[in-house]
């Protein structure tokens, strides 16, 4: 196999992983950009989404139903978390919300450990076919999750662009006080944003479940990487986060041509540190004027 | 609404006190605006004119005193409820949603109030008729408009709420002299549409010319009121409170 072929394979791998990461990160960046909340519970919503997926799949046998049920249930859980935990902290120091979401993350993680135990569960992928990529059998499912992630992010974009709530969400992001003065029910808008972000985390959990197995700590790795992506892409910048997710994943994929995949993770940190040193506002945002 | 409602002033502010942190900003402000009336609020910088408008809009909640809208106490309501009850707000720095298009800026005041599509179109046609430049730029981001255009958009946006009153905070600030006559025209438009206006301005001639009554504020209180027709820009009262 030539180096060129290897690079091509790793490009596809990088894009596939990058799209899932983009899905996790876009929920996170949406919540940060609009609400100024750094959501440390995002990884646990991802993990709980995967568990709801496991249970629904076991009960109904339908992966697609599992995806939808997990998204809706975790969106509802997100709305409940927002109303009970974050809404009372509105207007306080950001440290309060960071501690609150960190607390929520510990509760959810330990709930999952208590409820489901330490043994990883499996989500069966809905399609098992493979196609030949040079010498390698490449699973169609990976291509499918990349496309589905893209479709979900595209749906989010359309929602933000055209729907009433989309306009309200963007207005609230830009000027919360003026949004209120225009009659926009800002507390409800914020709850809906948190619910959407949570639902997207859950959807990525179910989609990614077949690749890694579902356990109570599965959120940790992903949310760490998602945070890197959100910072590299420019905090709160949706397009930047997507670009950064693909960029970081491609870098890692190429690096793993020469070093082991677990060592390749270092590349993300290198990108993060360089970003913070050279361009702390993010790589994929226009230079602030 | 019934005619009986009109015996109550549209907005009545009764002895409101507000604090910003520990500093006491308003020390018992009282004023009223009747239906369809244009009222000026004059005073030096920092006497609490903008804070008074914010308190009426529900963006600042008074610790004492009451704000009444058509006789109903509303001082405890959040701003978004007050907007839907008929108070429009055009802040000092205009606060256009800079990344939203002109159309989207207008849409923030139209959606979610149960307004029919036909009525939405009527309202849009009305403001595009009054401000043709907004129609030309409807797909442009709000932040790309000139200062005068942004002021028009801020007022047009408030008009989308079909308000009973618009709180207009220094509309001519930072505008070229040519634009001042535009603002005068806009205030006449609001009067024609039956919208009351509470106008905070530094431009005394404009305020006296457009208003029916004028309040003077000093040190967080309303100290004087007079019909605008009895005043002129170099009247002793104006000198006393504005030092011009």
Features:
heterodimer, A: 289 residues, mainly alpha, ABC transporter involved in vitamin B12 uptake, BtuC, two-stranded antiparallel ribbon, 3% strand, globular, B: 244 residues, alpha/beta, 6-stranded mixed sheet, 9 helices, 10 strands
Structure commentary:
The complex is a heterodimer of chains A (289) and B (244). With 289 residues, chain A is an all-alpha fold. Chain A has one domain (3-278): ABC transporter involved in vitamin B12 uptake, BtuC. Chain A contains twelve helices and two strands. Chain A has a two-stranded antiparallel sheet with strand order 1-2. In chain A, a hairpin with a 2-residue loop joins β1 and β2 (136-139). In chain A, α1 runs parallel beside α5 (140-162), α1 (3-35) crosses α9 and α2 packs across α9 (218-233). The termini of chain A are far apart. The model of chain A has no long low-confidence stretch (mean pLDDT 88). Chain B is of the alpha/beta class. Chain B is 34% helix and 25% strand. Chain B has helices at residues 49-57, 79-85, 102-107, 117-130, 132-136, 147-159, 177-192, 204-210, 236-242; strands at 11-20, 23-33, 38-42, 64-69, 72-73, 87-90, 165-169, 196-200, 213-218, 221-227. In chain B, the strands form two sheets. In chain B, strands 6-7-8-3-9-10 form a six-stranded mixed beta sheet, sandwiched between helices. In chain B, strands 2-1-4-5 form a four-stranded antiparallel beta sheet, covered by helices on one side. In chain B, α7 (177-192) links the parallel β7 (165-169) and β8. Chain B is globular and about 45 Å long. Chain B starts with 10 loop residues before the first strand and ends with a helix. The mean pLDDT of chain B is 89. At the A-B interface, α6 and α7 of A face α2 and α3 of B.
Assembly context of the chains: heterodimer
Order of helices and strands of chain A: HHHHEEHHHHHHHH
Number of helices of chain A: 12
Strand order of the largest sheet of chain B: 6-7-8-3-9-10
SSE order of chain B in H/E notation?
EEEHEEHEHHHHEHEHEEH
How many beta-strand runs of chain A?
2
Poorly predicted residue ranges of chain B: none
In what order do the strands lie side by side in the largest sheet of chain A? 1-2
Overall number of structural domains of chain A: 1
Overall residue-averaged pLDDT value of chain B: 89
| Radius of gyration of chain A, in angstroms, nearest whole number | 19 Å
Q: Compute the CA-based radius of gyration of chain B.
A: 17 Å
Averaged pLDDT of chain A, please? Answer: 88
Gross morphology of chain A is globular
Largest sheet of chain A: 2 strands, antiparallel
User: What is the CATH topology of chain A?
Assistant: ABC transporter involved in vitamin B12 uptake, BtuC
Largest interface: A-B, 18 and 26 residues
From the N-terminal CA to the C-terminal CA of chain A, the straight-line distance is 48 Å
| Biggest pleated sheet of chain B | 6 strands, mixed
């Amino acid at each position: 196999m030539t180096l060129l072929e290897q690079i091509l394979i790793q490009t596809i791998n990088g894009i596939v992983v990058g799209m899932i990461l983009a899905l996790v990160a876009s929920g996170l960046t949406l919540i940060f950009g609009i609400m100024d909340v750094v959501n440390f519970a995002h990884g646990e919503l991802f993990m709980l989404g995967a568990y709801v997926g496991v249970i629904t799949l076991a009960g109904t046998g339908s992966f697609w139903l599992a995806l939808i049920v997990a998204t809706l249930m975790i969106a509802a859980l997100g709305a409940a978390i927002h109303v009970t935990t974050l809404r009372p902290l509105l207007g306080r120091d950001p440290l309060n919300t960071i501690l609150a979401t960190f607390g929520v993350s510990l509760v959810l993680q330990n709930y999952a450990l208590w409820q489901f135990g330490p043994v990883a569960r499996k989500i069966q992928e809905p399609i098992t076919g493979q196609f030949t990529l040079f010498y390698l059998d490449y699973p169609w499912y990976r291509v499918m999750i990349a496309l589905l992630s893209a479709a979900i992010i595209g749906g989010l974009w359309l929602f933000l662009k055209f729907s009433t709530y989309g306009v309200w969400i963007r207005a609230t992001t830009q000027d919360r006080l003026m949004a209120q003065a225009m009659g926009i029910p800002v507390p409800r808008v914020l709850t809906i944003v948190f619910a959407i972000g949570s639902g997207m985390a859950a959807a990525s959990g179910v989609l990614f479940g077949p690749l890694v197995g579902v356990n109570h700590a599965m959120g940790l790795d992903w949310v760490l990487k998602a945070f890197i992506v959100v910072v590299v892409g420019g905090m709160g910048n949706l397009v930047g986060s997507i670009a950064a997710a693909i960029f970081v994943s491609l870098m890692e994929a190429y690096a793993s041509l020469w070093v082991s995949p677990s060592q390749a993770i270092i590349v993300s940190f290198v990108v993060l540190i360089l970003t913070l040193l050279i361009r702390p506002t993010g790589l994929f945002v226009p230079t602030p004027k | 609404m019934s005619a009986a409602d009109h015996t109550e002033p549209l907005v009545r502010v009764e002895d409101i006190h507000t604090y910003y942190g520990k500093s006491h900003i308003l020390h018992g402000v009282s004023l009223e605006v009747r239906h369809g009336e244009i009222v000026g609020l004059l005073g030096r910088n920092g006497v609490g004119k903008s804070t008074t408008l914010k308190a009426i809009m529900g963006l600042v909640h008074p610790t004492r005193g009451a704000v009444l809208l058509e006789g109903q106490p509303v001082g405890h309501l959040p701003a978004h409820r007050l907007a839907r009850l008929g108070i429009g707000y055009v802040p000092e720095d205009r606060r256009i949603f800079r990344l939203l298009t002109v159309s989207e800026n207008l849409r923030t005041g139209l959606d979610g109030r149960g307004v029919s599509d036909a009525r939405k179109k009527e309202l849009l046609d009305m403001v595009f008729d009054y401000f043709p430049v907004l129609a030309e730029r409807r797909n442009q981001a709000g932040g790309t408009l000139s200062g005068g255009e942004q002021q028009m958009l801020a007022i047009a946006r408030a008009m989308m709420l079909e308000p009973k009153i618009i709180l207009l905070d220094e509309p001519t600030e930072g505008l070229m002299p040519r634009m001042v006559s535009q603002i005068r025209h806009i205030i006449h438009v609001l009067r024609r549409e039956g919208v009351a206006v509470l106008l905070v301005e530094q431009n005394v001639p404009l305020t006296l010319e457009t208003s029916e009554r004028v309040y003077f504020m000093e040190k967080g209180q309303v100290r004087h009121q007079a019909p605008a027709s009895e005043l002129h820009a170099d009247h002793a009262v104006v000198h006393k409170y504005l030092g011009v």
